[in-house]
Amino acid sequence: MDKIRTFFEANGFEVISRISEKFGVRASKLRLLFIYLSFITLGGIFAIYLVGAFFLWVKDCFFIKRPSVFDL
Question: Model's pTM, two decimal places?
Answer without folding.
Answer: 0.54
